[in-house]
Amino acid sequence: MAEIVIIYTSETGMTKQYAKWISKELDSDCLVLEEVKAEEFLHADLIVFGAGIRAGRMRKLKSFHSKMNKSGWSGPVVYFATGGAPYDEQTVRAIVANSFHSSETSSVPFHYFESGLNFEKMKIRSRAIMRVYKMIMDGKKEKSEAAMGTRQALNGSYDHSSPDYIRPLIKDVHKRINV
């Protein structure tokens, strides 16, 4: 059976929850990016990397790639990101375009999972960024459903996470390891 390792980074715990659900479903190790050592994942046949979204891109992706490159590991990676925005293709395309090199955007195995916002667990910098973003959104005259939903979401903490959202990623991983 193929060896799969889940590596994640999580500021508020929402990405951690998804990583745990994925790890359980795939019966795999689940490691925190900030604590992981190369020898802990060199045995992997495939890595799943997950992170939250900040400013429209995956957090700590460069750090993950740096650790991976330093280790010499060059196997396949399936990526996932979590964020407060509801899932839609336009959101996913924007995250991929902002996170990966243009030569990778059409081929990178990427999955997005709606989670939420947890202001209480956010670091001070993140809370400040969210306050500024809320002020920008409040100043816009746009009345679209998406804009109204974003304004409402920025009013407080919420969690829309669901283990059901990981099904496409699990299917993708199984396909890649021929299960």
UniProtKB/TrEMBL annotation:
PROSITE patterns assigned: FLAVODOXIN, FLAVODOXIN_LIKE
SUPFAM superfamilies noted in UniProt: Flavoproteins
InterPro entries on file: Flavodoxin/NO_synth (IPR008254), Flavodoxin_CS (IPR001226), Flavodoxin_dom (IPR026816), Flavoprotein-like_sf (IPR029039), Protoporphyrinogen_IX_DH (IPR052200)
Limits of the Flavodoxin-like domain: 4-179
Gene3D superfamilies, per database record: 3.40.50.360
The protein's name in its UniProt record: Flavodoxin domain-containing protein
